[in-house]
Amino acid sequence: MIAKLTALQQRPADLVGDRLPKHVAVIMDGNGRWAKRRGMPRIMGHRRGVDTLKALLRCCDDWGIGALTAYAFSTENWGRPGEEVDFLMTLFERVLRQELQELMAKNVRIRFVGHLQALPASLQTEIERAMLDTQDNQGIQFTIATNYGGRQEIIQACRAIAVQIQQGNLAPEEIDEAIFERHLYTQGLEDPDLLIRTSGEMRISNFLLWQLAYAEMYITETLWPDFDRDAFHQALLDYQQRHRRFGKL
Is 158 a member of any domain? Predict the structure, then answer.
């Protein structure tokens, strides 16, 4: 308890605890552009982006935000140059292996969502180990969307529900939002309150199409590797000025 209170003291005084988002989602855009502007290979931007994500996770934990979901690799990203895709797969695997001990020490619960069966077998092994080892942790929920596509997620949920109907275990008129959500990759995870997208792009790029229905959106021109605590602080200040009506007055 003392350690938790010490961490929370690091939260800026102008951030009101009960007005913070419970769940933040991020589209980490701009790694390649960050590297290009510095005359570096694109892979250097991805490496720096991992450091940014680790820092943001610590920040969320320090400031009392209970869930962070990061868009790491989309179903469309397979269309990138092969050497870049291979590097990303190797990077994911290496980071997982190196960081698991620290995640355990920080009591982080890690979860991967997406079509994980299409990932390299060695990466799948690291993912399974990380999720199994951290499943009983009670700290921040850290979700990583990998080989994820929002449309794909909805289609697979529809297929799973159709099978239940075909087997006579569910009637069409029984389908509601709660049942549908139980068939999404993110089942059991509260919807994000805030979506942050870096690099100034004004779209959600097939990310959490169902779950972002009422999320507040914050777009910043900052490239992902430069998205530090000060930038996150500004995003949260902006969020606190929003009036979330959920379609009501």
Answer: no
CATH number of the domain encompassing residue 196: 3.40.1180.10
Structure confidence by residue, pLDDT tens digits, 101-136: 999 999 999 999 999 999 999 999 999 999 999 999
Distances (CA, A) of 31 to 44, 53, 77: 8, 12, 13
What residues are labeled active site?
29, 77
177 domain residue, yes or no: no
51-60 tens-digit pLDDT: 999 999 999 9
**Residue 44, C-beta contacts closer than 8 angstroms, at least 6 positions apart:** 35, 38
Per the domain annotation, does 173 fall within a domain? Answer: no
Q: In 10 A of CB 67, how many CB atoms?
A: 21
Within a domain: residue 137? Answer: yes
Range of the structural domain that residue 69 is part of: 21-151+191-240
For the chain, list the strands marked E by DSSP.
23-27, 67-74, 109-113, 141-148, 194-197, 216-219
